[in-house]
Amino acid sequence: MHGDGKPSVPRVEVPRGKPLPGEWLWTTRAGSEQDVVDEFTLGFGPDKAKVLGPALVRSRGAPTSREGGVDLTFARQGFRIVAEPAGTLDAMARVAARALAPQLAGDAPWTLSAWVPDADGSNPLGPLAEALEARTVALLDEDDAMRARRVPLAALPRSGALLAQLALAGPERSFAGLVRSEDALSLAPGGRARMRVGGERPSRAARKVEEALAWLGMAPGAGETCVDLGAAPGGWSWALLDRRAKVIAVDPAELRPDIARHRSMVHHKESAFQFVPEEPVDWLFCDMAWRPLEVAQLLAKWGRRRWTRLVVANLKLPMKTKAATVHDLVQVLAGGGWQQIRTRQLYHDRDEITLTAHL
């Protein structure tokens, strides 16, 4: 236990030298490291992953038969380790470039992203990670053919490309590796998908739903009808209205006055557990500060009654055994007929996860 009362994260000494075949590095929100380990244990048995330190986990093998084809809930980013560069900045860049060059050979477009684990001790190393990325890219660009295939991270194709990565775990310690772009958990450096929203929006709530829609890869269109359960004070509803959707907000509490007055808004002041839509809607959104199993049962009811075709929900997880709870929640939704159920602790989530599903 730290002096501030927070539980300490166990540190595991990482062996120096060449990584073992099939070893992967994962980064997560600080404090969620054991949740990633628990996900491996639930799926594949004990001793498949271990905590390296704040926001870092190392595993043997990716969680599916397809290398990198992962959908871990509590990991933000991951890659297959090809080298563990150490020493000075120049030394780390040289080792990383030598290890990555043969992996990037071929015809696929590629990019390199360097990042630091999202933890108090490593966040100050951000400028050093930027310098390491620049020097490594400069060495890789000495090969004209390789330089011609390199694209900016923002332009990296979502499939058919390679995302090389450098994780700077300390001033003289790093991990180098890569993942196919279609298998990457995120294309944001270290999985930190920071959302920008306008000043008029209730900021954090709007960022959460914007990140959820970006992760889903689709969003409500103009004129589509969305139900927002647990809407007050209106952060999610505002983001949906901004996309010119029609919103039915359900919450006994008041909405922010300007949101409540919007011409495309209807507010039902009642419990989300009692609300019944007059007709099926296009989207169901849910961000309720309520017990997650009961919320999952509510979402399952919407699936069984086919009141909507898509759901985006935020489920609170105050308990310690989060990975097991997520497994149970997914089973409840599957029992309601929901398919393509995905769960992720997104960058703007805290002790909660985002869930999406289709009918």
Topology:
Layout: E1 23-27, H1 33-44, E2 49-53, E3 56-60, E4 77-83, H2 89-104, E5 110-115, H3 126-140, H4 144-149, E6 162-170, E7 173-180, H5 203-216, E8 225-229, H6 235-242, E9 246-250, H7 257-260, E10 265-268, E11 283-287, H8 292-304, E12 310-316, H9 322-335, E13 339-344, E14 352-358
Parallel strand pairs: 5-6, 8-9, 8-11, 9-10, 11-12
Antiparallel strand pairs: 1-3, 1-4, 2-3, 4-7, 6-7, 12-14, 13-14
Helix pairs in contact: 2-3, 5-6, 8-9
The pLDDT mean sits at 91
- Backbone shape: elongated
Q: What structural class do the secondary elements suggest? A: alpha/beta
CATH arch. level architecture of the largest domain: 2-Layer Sandwich
